[in-house]
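Mods, move this if it's the wrong board.
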Amino acid sequence: MAEMLTDLLNAIYNRIAQLGVAIQDLKNSLDGLNRNIDDKIANLSEKITTFSGEIETTQTSHLEVLSEVGKKVTQEFETLKGGLGLEAFNTLISSLENFSSLAGEVLNQETVNLLLSEAIESVKILKEQGLVEEEEDEQVAGE
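Not the wrong board. Structure tokens:
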């Protein structure tokens, strides 16, 4: 019976030893898995940092390109505007509007009436001077 007990204890000890080896293998496997996860996380973090830098560079480049495009388009519009004479056309329209308002002021009914009355008065004066000169000429001719 002692031998049986010894065999049983040896079997239990062997099982415990096997269990210890299995636990050690599991620990080694988990350590490897943790290292692998740490490596993957570090790699992912590095790629995200690189990607963020590329996005920032690309974004800045896009903004610069769009700004340059906007400047060029504005310059081309100014060139086109000058080439079509739009500024001169706008100046002409403004001058015509000013002339129209000035002509409207000058040709109002009161101004026209005043000008006509002055013209009629001038004609009367000229006519009277003409008659006076004719009479003087007749008198000089009759003497």
